[in-house]
Amino acid sequence: xxxxxxxxxxxxxxxxxxxxxxxxxxxxxxxxxxxxxxxxxxxxxxxxxxxxxxxxxxxxxxxxxxxxxxxxxxxxxxxxxxxxxxxxxxxxxxxxxxxxxxxxxxxxxxxxxxxxxxxxxxxxxxxxxxxxxxxxxxxxxxxxxxxxxxxxxxxxxxxxxxxxxxxxxxxxxxxxxxxxxxxxxxxxxxxxxxxxxxxxxxxxxxxxxxxxxxxxxxxxxxxxxxxxxxxxxxxxxxxxxxxxxxxxxxxxxxxxxxxxxxxxxxxxxxxxxxxx
Amino acid sequence: xxxxxxxxxxxxxxxxxxxxxxxxxxxxxxxxxxxxxxxxxxxxxxxxxxxxxxxxxxxxxxxxxxxxxxxxxxxxxxxxxxxxxxxxxxxxxxxxxxxxxxxxxxxxxxxxxxxxxxxxxxxxxxxxxxxxxxxxxxxxxxxxxxxxxxxxxxxxxxxxxxxxxxxxxxxxxxxxxxxxxxxxxxxxxxxxxxxxxxxxxxxxxxxxxxxxxxxxxxxxxxxxxxxxxxxxxxxxxxxxxxxxxxxxxxxxxxxxxxxxxxxxxxxxxxxxxxxx
Lengths: 276, 276
What we know:
eight-stranded parallel β-barrel; 8 strands; about 40% helix
């Protein structure tokens, strides 16, 4: 998918919502646990209920790997289901991988080829260009590089000052924007750091940003839009727990849809207000 | 496992060899492909042949994930086999994970609990302390943080100068050594960067270092030992392709054993020469 197609979907749905499928088997409603694959059954119901309000889904691999081979299969089935049923949806594997050479090529093949191919993968930039290179070879697929994350200990390294006067996250943005283009690279910028979105946009005005931290982590959707939106929206704002665990009983999917619809309604207003 | 037990094994085997199980299904001998689980059959044979010369095995998750759920099962079976058959061996899951909060806790549980529990996991430090914290809660288990990697683009960020005058990898070492101790934290330092081992040892004199890059990547075992060894050896030197793909036919396991034995012989000499 290219950025124009993604933007068209955003305009059509009046939403730049990414729903994080951080599906913890311990947190899904009890009645689903009798299903053959409870995690997949949960995800399918959440996706069907929220797809009118979301342009993207982001399964976090940690939650699937925690169940070993069985969990990996739930992940694949989820991706295959979304791809087949909602082909316009942008799927991000939140894997935060980061390796080099032949290993990085294998990760790229794992995520970008076959039945369970996704549109984008999150990557840690620590090891440099070698990490992203194999992912950038795939036409229409995206590397989503961690830049400035929403957690407290982002201050340990990401926000440390370099000899150049920039912070590390700025150096990561400035260096890595040369590896690819705004058509194959996105950046993770936490919604808890909206005061730094100015600095981010000064370096990567055209790139899409994946913004986690709205909701459970306390980030502001409105501030993310005010400081981060560009002429093609340029934002995917993620919410996970606030949507998928909105209700713990029979009506978990309706509750998820309500939360997603509410976020989409606010997003529609922000698109009207800020889209330049 | 604690560092004393690891050191005792190093002295007993006169080796600080870690064998990287980067098992690519396309590269294993043709006659093994008729096995029910060719990757596991290959790993088991390599482990049985090389265990007298190795103190550690390091399966790289990328190679297993590339085969989806089936590959994940091969990984689990490999770990379970090593744990059961060679309980003294130090197993490192080379996953290079890096996430935060509840996600990081899930990764820690995945790798440190259950039948396929390993001794150590490699982690990317980019997001700071939150990444390592859950792993450091497990008694006798280890976080192996990327510090200075063996690849060319380590210069993109790891070797960039900070405002403090240090390089980023030095800041990572200095900051992260406070998160845990030399009993639960190791560092990845590439053998292609042995001239920087002085700087590394100035900051973390007592920690074990996991040193990849000997062999295929051109790093020198002798230099790694000269500049990196401490009073408890303090090194695990990894070789992957040079051992496991030493021969492509019926005698792949014997060939792997010969390569491992040759490295162990050199390591024995280095232990005699440099152990202080």
